[in-house]
Design goal:
Helix content is 65%, strand content 0%. The protein has helices at 2-25, 37-60, 66-113. 7% of the residues are buried. The structure holds zinc ion. Zinc ion (ZN) binds next to loops.
Length: 148
């Protein structure tokens, strides 16, 4: 969990640093779509897999001692697992965001259906965020217009 958090922080820092550099390249062309946290995590995971493959090859061809091979392999596997967990966490966060966005959209639709006069104060003009009996700004009683 702590490792995952550390990886996440490292990734977001990396994105934070790399992102402005990339956006200079594509100046005026909108945001590059592949520079997401998930995309970055996937790219790094593929690099680790590549390294693992190379390591395997070098060990098979006798270029590397078993002891080194095993310690490097453990490191790479740990890194891959960390990146995998970070990806899953980022995916979950993305889903959470989607739920919140849907909720907000639903509330907006709901609110837009309510007659505006019902919660705009006639005394001070303040737009109360909800239909209320008294103005949240000046305390005046709101005229019961827009009957249900
Ligand atoms: Zn008012």
């Amino acid at each position: 969990m702590l490792l995952t958090l550390a990886v996440l922080i490292a990734v977001s820092m990396a994105v934070y640093i790399v992102f402005p550099l990339l956006s200079v390249e594509t100046a005026g062309g909108g945001l590059p779509t592949d520079v997401t946290v998930l995309g970055d995590l996937k790219r790094r995971r593929l690099v680790v897999y590549d390294n693992l493959q190379d390591l395997e090859f070098e060990f098979q061809s006798g270029k590397i001692a078993r002891e080194d091979y095993e310690s490097l392999r453990t490191n790479y596997l740990g890194e891959a697992a960390g990146l995998m967990a970070a990806s899953q966490e980022a995916e979950l966060l993305k889903q959470d965001d989607a739920v919140v966005e849907r909720e907000i959209a639903a509330r907006r639709v709901q609110r837009s259906k309510l007659p505006k006069v019902e919660y705009t104060c006639s005394a001070c003009g303040y737009e109360n965020p909800l239909p209320v009996k008294f103005c949240g700004e000046c305390g005046a009683r709101l005229a019961p217009t827009g009957k249900k």
